[in-house]
Amino acid sequence: MVMTQEMMDVIAGSRAYVATATTDGVPNVVPIGNIKPLDNKTVIIADSYMIKTRKNLEANPKVAFVVEDAAKYPFQFKGTVKIYTSGEYYDEVVNWVKEASPLAPAPKAAVVIDIEEIYSVKVGDAGKKLD
After folding, report:
1. In the predicted model, is pLDDT for residue 73 greater than 90?
2. Domain tally for the chain?
3. What 3-state class would DSSP assign to 34?
4. Residue 85 domain-assigned?
5. Residue 31's domain spans which residues?
6. Which of 10, 22, 57, 118 would give a disulfide with 130, using CB separation of 3.0 to 4.6 Å?
């Protein structure tokens, strides 16, 4: 699935609410401030404070998220993650977080989401898969 420029701009400028689940289906949702698109098919998150979310993603790499202002930008993104604790993606989030918040601790990992599906959450179109 390919994100539009509008979708990428919204993700880059917003907080997101990221949903994960255990392998038993127990849900977890967290606000994420350090999130941005890498390209029109991929999003990266800095894992600075994840505990349950990280544990869930290691056991079940499926994820969904919406941006904070879903009423204005009514998109739900779903995908599969890969977690990096070293290498290019990790270095990118370390530099990105350090630049944005010099006193913040270094992220524990980079979480890269391959976007597989995008849905509308707009009134009247909620649940409609976008092409």
Report:
1. no
2. 1
3. coil
4. yes
5. 5-120
6. 118
